[in-house]
Amino acid sequence: MFKYYLKLVFTLVVAIVVISCSTDSEENLLAGEDFTSTNIRVLSVDTFSVKFSTMKFDSIATSISSRLMIGKYTDDDMGIVNSSSYFSFNSTSYSIDNDAVLDSVGLVLGYDTYYYNDTTQVATLNIHKLTEKMSSDDDTFYNTSTTAYETTPLITKSYIPTPNKDSIYVTLPYTFGEELFNDIRDNNITDDESLYQKLKGFTIIPGTDDNGSVIGFSPSSEDTYIRFYYTIPDELYTDEYTYDFSIDTYYNHTETDVTGLPLESIIDQEYNLDSSDSNGICYNQSGTGYVTKIEFPTIKNIYDIGREGTILDAVLYIEPNTGSHSDIQPLNESLLLYTIDQNNDLASQISNSSDVVTATLSTDDSEFNVITYEVPVIDFIDKKLNESPETEDALILIPSDYNSEINKIIFNDTEKSNYNTRLVITYAIYE
């Protein structure tokens, strides 16, 4: 209760100081009798060390992703980035007129506007039929999951991505469509299970030599589907009809080839690549499992100040590496805070009394080429100072679409950033 009261007093005093146009960086503040009889001295301390390292989750769930991600490109920081999609089909109805005749069949892939990297390069869609039914022990698929498929593609299409448009259409072989169409018409396929016996699904894999972008496609039945076009010959008017398969279960297989890069030394989830061993930088990449681990090894040195006090605020500033982001590789505007335990397993999301805690991108000093993420860490710092027994948990920052994008963020550590990356604690000393 006293700590809350002290913060309230501090807020009021700071307001008075601001109104009075004070420019002092440190004030010996004396609150009036209406507030408290305690002398309060407020310090801003930024000398605490911040330890950065990179770790990688063994796997992340991608069957809960909001999109299909397909594409491949080479990145100076992350190596060769490759994303393929796997999905099965179903239908809302297994009924076609007995006299229907197939005209053509195609796969419609609806853009969802997401892309990452260079969309001006030609990309390839290799569409393969699955040879096994998609299955998982826990009903969840991960970025490391795979399902067997035919070696030879059913069809290959080259295209230049246009994610601002509606969709891309891929004509499928007539013989492939005719067999499925006739089986539905003749009641050999009557439900999802009998469809799976005939068509276990597709995987779409980028071309071996592709070096362009990863494109997002919508899994919604309104946007992505196999469409059969057919007619009924004996009708007076020869209208063309359609019949659709929609996506049922899906997941993205995302991976990176980091041969020859500092990331190559990360051999399992418990390995931490210290920033000092990776040229003063740390790595975050959605979709593949790389995250920056943040620790405050000297935070308890705050007790060395020697007088009783309380932390009023704690903000971590982290500078993204200037050369690692661009218009085609944009930075996330916000990031969520989570903790990981001593084994680098995900523990919990950081929140306060009102909401989850969010790190935000600040460009206030962008004209001087200083861009930082501002991370409110007071809740975590309070926990570390008061926990018993002590734990070895640490912070990580991930975007809300961590399962559904491939974006990277390269962070500069304290020395690499020329101390733009730092922890700043506002501390009140009282007697």
What count of helical segments does DSSP give? 4
Rounded mean pLDDT score: 90
| Overall number of structural domains | 2
What is the makeup of the main sheet? Answer: 14 strands, antiparallel
Tell the overall outline.
Answer: elongated
The oligomerization state is: single chain
How does the helix and strand content classify structurally? mainly beta
- Poorly predicted regions are 1-6, 8-36
Distance between the termini: 17 Å
Number of strands: 24
Rounded Rg: 28 Å
Beta-strand residue fraction: 35-45%
Could you give the order of the helices and strands?
HEEEEEEEEEHHEEEEEEEEEEEEHEEE
Would you mind describing this structure in some detail?
The longest helix is centred in the N-terminal third of the chain and has 18 residues, at about 1-20. Helix content is about 10%, strand content about 40%. The strands form 2 sheets. Strands 1, 2, 3, 14, 15, 16, 17, 18, 19, 20, 21, 22, 23 and 24 form a 14-stranded antiparallel beta sheet that branches. The protein has a 6-stranded antiparallel β-barrel with strand order 4-5-13-12-6-11. It has about 425 residues and is mostly beta strands. The protein contains 4 helices and 24 strands. It folds into 2 domains: about 25-55 and about 270-430, no CATH class; about 70-255, no CATH class. It comes from Winogradskyella litoriviva. This is DUF4270 family protein.
